[in-house]
Amino acid sequence: MATIFSTARLHNKVVLVTGASSGIGAATAVLFSMAGANVVLAARRAEKLAEIEQACIQANKDGGTGKGGRYATLSLDVNNHGQVDSILSALPDWAAQVDVLVNNAGLALGTERVGDLKFDDVDRMLDTNVRGLIRMTQVFVNMFKARDAGHIINVGSIAGVEPYPGGSVYCASKFAVRAFTSALMKELYDTQIRVSNIQPGMVETEFSIVRFHGDKQNADKVYAGIEPLAAQDIADEIVWAASRAPHVNIAEVLIMPTNQAGPFHVARSTAK
Ligand SMILES: NC(=O)c1ccc[n+]([C@@H]2O[C@H](COP(=O)([O-])OP(=O)(O)OC[C@H]3O[C@@H](n4cnc5c(N)ncnc54)[C@H](OP(=O)(O)O)[C@@H]3O)[C@@H](O)[C@H]2O)c1
């Protein structure tokens, strides 16, 4: 009997990861490559994508499955309607049938309280985290419906479970992701299409640098005195969800560092 922990189910599958140029998306692309999948890496920064593509090639060799090994990078801004709507025509032939879509591209901008919100930030968060994810899903769900197969894995957040002051709009965006994902699952439960929401707590990536508009010192304070999750920890969960048996749908996962129990329940030690 094949082990239920096997990643063999991913061999030669086609996986498209948005936000693959950094953090969770990059780690996810690499881990899928190691498991023998073919991966399309999408994001705005082409040079970063090229670096991660090289890491995928290496991971595939290290994985040693002899499967997968096909990669493509795709310049994609999920806020660009034209790019998203025509994405299928931009995929290479081998990726014409995507099996797993990982909607990971997303960001938080600022920690202002309501009254001091900056509407450029508000718009970018809602556009990227919500509208971009919905638009990508709309394209691929029709491909999946036509084949009665496929897996949509959305990257939500603890912010979509427990709102916190200074995060009103980011939390609202991730609550929207959670609601959208749950509604979609209920639209598709009579099909073979799977829908998952992977919700990380604190993960050390470029996330906080982006949130603090490039202020690395402030970003570092977020992770002071605690061992945060690494991008690979979330990639593990995403690849695990994608590699379950076809009758198993991982609906929601909430993952936090051991010393975190909520957005502001963070046990910090000066010794760490
Ligand atoms: N880090 C955390 O603590 C944490 C916790 C919970 C949830 N999350 C979620 O995890 C996801 C990944 O974040 P991360 O922590 O890995 O942060 P990250 O290192 O900053 O990565 C974010 C990725 O999203 C991409 N992206 C941003 N805007 C985009 C756009 N308009 N179009 C296409 N791609 C875009 C970025 O690529 P380009 O800049 O190259 O486009 C980058 O690859 C996000 O949805 C985030 O909300 C993170």
TrEMBL record:
PROSITE patterns: ADH_SHORT (PS00061). GO terms for molecular function: oxidoreductase activity, acting on the CH-OH group of donors, NAD or NADP as acceptor. Transmembrane segments: none annotated. The keyword ATP-binding does not apply. Keywords: NADP, Oxidoreductase. It comes from the Eukaryota. Belongs to the short-chain dehydrogenases/reductases (SDR) family. This is Uncharacterized protein. It comes from Malassezia vespertilionis.
